[in-house]
């Protein structure tokens, strides 16, 4: 039976984190050397955590499925990272970043966590600068900023269009240092396939060496998951092809509650889908909305090329509907507006799935060179993919699955409902509520990894001091058996016919149609019927060539698809039970007359944390959200 | 569109490999090169044949996973792109395309088109970092860094660690990679305190890993998807020379942790 204790320190908001740091027990340096911690994942969250834990003196064993820690999906983040530095003196502050994030998340996140994130944000920038991250600078040598959606101050730090790569290289270099010092043992090309829980505590993991296929058990005093998000459950998303739900889903099945699984972010500005062959959708950074104007022809039947449509016959629908924020409304709001206008038949491009993102005004006003300097790499990327030159014709964009706010439930200490199992970065549910604002995931990943987990895990290790279990402990053997059985099942079966990808695509379509940008009860119920039968077919018909004793990419992929098929059902249960619209979760039944979401704080001001039950419907637990410091209001950007 | 593909297939590190010919049709010009291979693999899997192993992840030119030599050129015929950013509209219909893995002594083949590039990580571990602890960093604006310096550091830091430069080089030298890494940190004031040790350690690691020496042919720059310039190799050479002249009192390896308490 799961109990949800958020474990938030008492006292004023500004003091909570200080109090926790002071009240937490410390592990003595000599003891640290004897303590082993497993970190799974080397994205911003995992690499920063592993390196900091190593630096503190713990023995760290770090895993990733990539061939190098540097390739984690964090590498792909383009736009930037937020911090309440107020270098622009435009009215920013910790309190404002806190408020923007709480409001951006539509009042579905925990106040204390978000406040701490805003407090730590400034330290992150300093730490990254110290590590040599080449942030953009002004001519005078100071750090430069840009604006991102959903806020009215300029607080985003960036490195051209590759902020993610530069921040990750910073964390990776710190990790390299600790590997060199022998504090961290790095195991790349190793996939975690289960957690080991002994006497109620997480004590290890089962992994598969992806090159030799060898399975092995690794035990430790605590386990940290930093395995990223699960947007790929939709098949097409902006995520890297390896992103998956395997680690968190398996932890869920071992007793970790999964929170708000249906809170998935659909990003407004991706290149529209074009055909069945497509393996992914490519994001066009949100920063483009600073200067690009979004529009469609007023008349659905207008088939003229964009430049032939006079301004009076264009509908700049975001500026029209949201005059105060215009093109810079948050992602959920923008995506929904784009979808609505396309559903009305005004969309442009193939299948009417697209709207224009037009730079002609800014090019006229500020010159093409400025635009090239700001966005040159994005324009290039766009041209490579579509064959169109966006300096001359407007870009076409359409929403795409991008980020998952849902994740394993964690308390203020970032510990899941399994003691000793900590979850950081996109893999946990914390901080972003029902919608994430741009440039705040990188911030969260690094806050968790550099600054929060290294403290909070110490308290756990200092207070729960049990010796490590052995590889042949009953719990280890049982976990190993579970993994073996599953792999065997995937590999057996002659005369099977369907590829894992075909199942993945079918699942993605079900979710996109019924548990995507807008949802209604009847549709979700349909999905809840369709998914189990698709899953059954998968286990009967999926074909995985080759053996388990060598590099077998199809086996890895099929295993991930199997987990998506299981997890998708949980998403639908969550979406169905939440009879309100909040943030990215838009239930068509709950909207105002002008199509804005209608939130229901009386019934749903809680975190929905789901417990796994074998062969049964998952059980809902609620963590009530008490707003002591901000008053939830209708989230308006009009 | 239709193509004939000659693909390097090799079952494992110690097996002999060879080219296998496949034909693919119904290829759309809008497909990326990797999507074209996906389509081939789907066909192979459906008949219980083992698909062609190749590396990919982000599919947008930043993670550095994808790594194919296409008609003899790492990352294919276009300049400044990775394999995943290459589109089939770039190729003439009905062409024969040869696809091979990176070939270098320091990058042993694991299977088909997948190679082991951990040597690059080990070079980084030897010195590709600034050793600062988490916490206690001064305000980011305390160090003023001119825009030009910042841009130069950023140009070098753009390297995605793909290893195409090594694959393109006759001597399989990793000079461009190492130059990019050394120059990034040497350009910034934060990187200055350790620059003498860093360059020595990284160059020594590069030699240890079995990468060849630089023959100044600049094939590396031509295939680099991030346009990392060979002028960084000049910078690396200067750094190395400087380090040699100044000598280094610091050991090329860093101290073991808590050295004094053992
Ligand atoms: C295209 C794109 C652009 C973005 N731009 C921005 C932006 O500008 N600003 C912003 O704030 N956010 C942005 N985001 C979001 C942000 O990049 C991610 O949310 C964040 O980087 C996630 O970091 P992470 O450390 O939690 O996980 P990841 O970086 O996804 O790392 C996951 C790690 O876990 C490992 N792993 C996963 N499963 C297993 C397993 N079973 N066994 C072993 N290892 C495993 C992987 O190998 C990897 O090392 C963007 C996202 C995308 C897709
Ligand atoms: S220098 Fe260029 S080619 Fe070499 S690893 Fe870096 S990005 Fe790849
Ligand atoms: S797949 Fe990431 S660079 Fe090509």
Structure report:
The complex is a heterodimer of chains A (638) and B (262). Chain A is 36% helix and 14% strand. Chain A has helices at residues 16-23, 29-32, 44-56, 94-104, 111-130, 163-180, 246-253, 317-321, 331-343, 360-366, 368-386, 441-463, 474-491, 500-514, 521-541, 553-577, 601-604, and strands spanning 36-40, 59-63, 81-82, 156-157, 184-187, 190-198, 201-209, 215-219, 222-225, 258-259, 264-270, 293-297, 314-315, 355-358, 395-404, 407-408, 421-423, 606-611, 619-624. Chain A has a five-stranded parallel sheet with strand order 5-2-1-9-17. The longest helix of chain A has 25 residues, at 553-577. Chain A is globular and about 75 Å long. In chain B, 34% of the residues lie in helices and 11% in strands. Chain B has helices spanning 33-46, 118-127, 147-157, 164-168, 175-187, 195-208, 219-223, 231-246; strands spanning 3-9, 18-24, 69-70, 73-74, 96-100, 109-111, 114-115. Chain B has a five-stranded mixed sheet. Chain B has a two-stranded antiparallel ribbon with strand order 6-7. The chains are: A alpha+beta (638), B alpha+beta (262). Chains A and B meet through helix 3, helix 5, helix 6, helix 11 and helix 12 of A and helix 1, helix 2 and helix 3 of B. Bound molecules: flavin-adenine dinucleotide (FAD), iron/sulfur cluster and FE2/S2 (inorganic) cluster.
């Amino acid at each position: 039976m799961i109990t949800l204790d958020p474990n938030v320190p008492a006292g004023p908001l500004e003091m909570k984190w200080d109090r926790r740091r002071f009240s937490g027990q410390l592990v003595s340096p000599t003891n640290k050397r004897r303590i082993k911690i497993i970190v799974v994942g080397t994205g911003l969250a995992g690499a920063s955590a592993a390196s900091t834990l190593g630096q503190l003196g713990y023995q760290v064993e770090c895993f990733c499925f990539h061939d190098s820690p540097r390739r984690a999906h964090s590498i792909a983040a383009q736009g930037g990272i937020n911090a309440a530095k107020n270098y622009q003196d435009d009215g920013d502050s910790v309190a404002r970043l806190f408020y923007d994030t709480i409001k951006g998340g539509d009042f579905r996140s925990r106040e204390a966590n978000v406040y701490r994130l805003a407090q730590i944000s400034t330290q992150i920038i300093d730490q990254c600068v110290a590590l040599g991250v080449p942030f953009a600078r002004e001519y005078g040598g100071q750090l430069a900023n840009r604006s991102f959606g959903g806020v009215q101050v300029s607080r985003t730090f960036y490195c051209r269009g590759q902020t993610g790569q530069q921040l990750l290289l910073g964390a990776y270099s710190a990790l390299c240092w600790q590997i060199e010092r022998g504090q961290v043992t790095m195991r790349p090309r190793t996939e975690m396939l289960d957690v080991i829980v002994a006497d109620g505590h997480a004590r290890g993991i089962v992994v598969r060496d992806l090159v030799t296929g060898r399975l092995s058990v690794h035990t430790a005093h605590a386990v940290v998951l930093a395995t990223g998000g699960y947007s790929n459950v939709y098949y097409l998303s902006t995520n890297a092809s390896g992103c998956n739900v395997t680690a968190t889903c398996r932890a869920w099945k071992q007793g970790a509650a999964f929170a708000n699984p249906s809170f998935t972010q659909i990003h407004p500005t991706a290149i529209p889908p074009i055909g069945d062959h497509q393996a992914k959708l490519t994001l066009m950074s949100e920063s483009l909305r600073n200067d690009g104007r979004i529009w469609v022809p007023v008349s659905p039947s207008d088939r003229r090329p964009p430049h032939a449509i006079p301004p009076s016959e264009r509908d700049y629908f975001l500026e029209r509907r949201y005059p105060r924020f215009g093109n810079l409304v948050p992602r959920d709001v923008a995506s929904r507006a784009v979808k609505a206008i396309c559903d009305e038949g005004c969309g442009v491009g193939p299948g009417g799935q697209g709207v224009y993102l037009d730079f002609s005004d800014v090019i006229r006003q500020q010159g093409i060179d400025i635009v090239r300097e700001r966005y040159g790499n994005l324009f290039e990327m766009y041209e490579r993919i579509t064959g169109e030159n966006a300096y001359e014709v407007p870009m076409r964009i359409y929403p795409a699955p991008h980020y998952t706010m849902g994740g394993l439930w964690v308390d203020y200490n970032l510990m899941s409902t399994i003691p000793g199992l900590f979850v950081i970065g996109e893999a946990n549910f914390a901080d972003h509520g029902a919608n994430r604002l741009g440039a705040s995931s990188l911030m969260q990943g690094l806050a968790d990894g550099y600054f929060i987990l290294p403290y909070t895990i110490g308290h756990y290790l200092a207070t729960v001091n049990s010796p490590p279990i052995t590889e042949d402990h009953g719990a280890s053997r049982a976990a190993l058996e579970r993994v073996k059985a599953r792999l065997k099942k995937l590999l057996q079966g002659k005369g099977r016919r369907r590829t894992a990808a075909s199942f993945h695509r079918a699942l993605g379509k079900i979710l996109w149609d019924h548990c995507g940008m807008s949802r209604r009860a009847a549709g979700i119920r349909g999905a809840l019927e369709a998914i189990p039968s698709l899953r059954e077919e998968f286990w009967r018909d999926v074909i995985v060539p080759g053996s388990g004793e060598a590099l077998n990419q199809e086996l890895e992929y099929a295993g991930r698809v199997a987990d998506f098929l299981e997890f998708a059902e949980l998403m639908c249960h969550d979406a169905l039970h939440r009879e309100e619209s909040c943030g990215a979760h838009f239930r068509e039944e709950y909207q105002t007359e002008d199509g804005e979401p209608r939130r229901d704080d009386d019934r749903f001001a809680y975190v929905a944390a789901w417990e796994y039950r074998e062969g049964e419907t998952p059980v809902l637990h609620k963590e009530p959200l008490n707003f002591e410091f901000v008053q939830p209001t209708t989230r308006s950007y009009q | 569109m239709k193509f004939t593909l000659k693909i390097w297939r090799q079952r494992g590190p110690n097996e002999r490999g060879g080219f296998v010919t496949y034909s693919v049709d119904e290829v759309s010009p809008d497909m990326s090169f990797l999507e074209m291979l996906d389509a081939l693999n789907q066909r192979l899997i459906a008949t219980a044949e083992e698909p062609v192993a190749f590396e990919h992840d982000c599919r947008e030119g930043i993670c550095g996973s994808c790594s194919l030599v296409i008609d003899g050129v790492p990352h294919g015929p276009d300049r400044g792109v990775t394999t995943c950013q290459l589109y089939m509209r770039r190729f003439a219909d009905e062409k024969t395309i040869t696809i091979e893995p990176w070939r270098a002594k320091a990058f042993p083949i694991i299977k088909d088109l997948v190679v082991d590039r951990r040597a690059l990580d080990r070079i980084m571990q030897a010195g590709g970092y600034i050793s600062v602890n988490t916490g206690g960093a001064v305000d980011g604006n305390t160090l003023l860094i001119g825009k030009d310096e910042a841009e130069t550091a950023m140009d070098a830091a753009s390297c995605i660690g793909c290893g195409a430069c090594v694959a393109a080089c006759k001597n399989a030298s990793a000079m461009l990679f190492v130059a990019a890494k050394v120059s990034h940190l040497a350009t910034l004031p934060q990187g200055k305190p350790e620059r003498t040790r860093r360059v020595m350690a990284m160059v020594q690691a590069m030699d240890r890993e079995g990468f060849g020496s630089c023959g100044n042919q600049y094939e590396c720059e031509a295939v680099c998807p991030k346009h990392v310039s060979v002028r960084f190799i000049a910078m690396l050479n200067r750094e190395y020379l400087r380090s040699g002249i100044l000598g280094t009192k610091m050991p090329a390896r860093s101290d073991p942790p808590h050295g004094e308490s053992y």
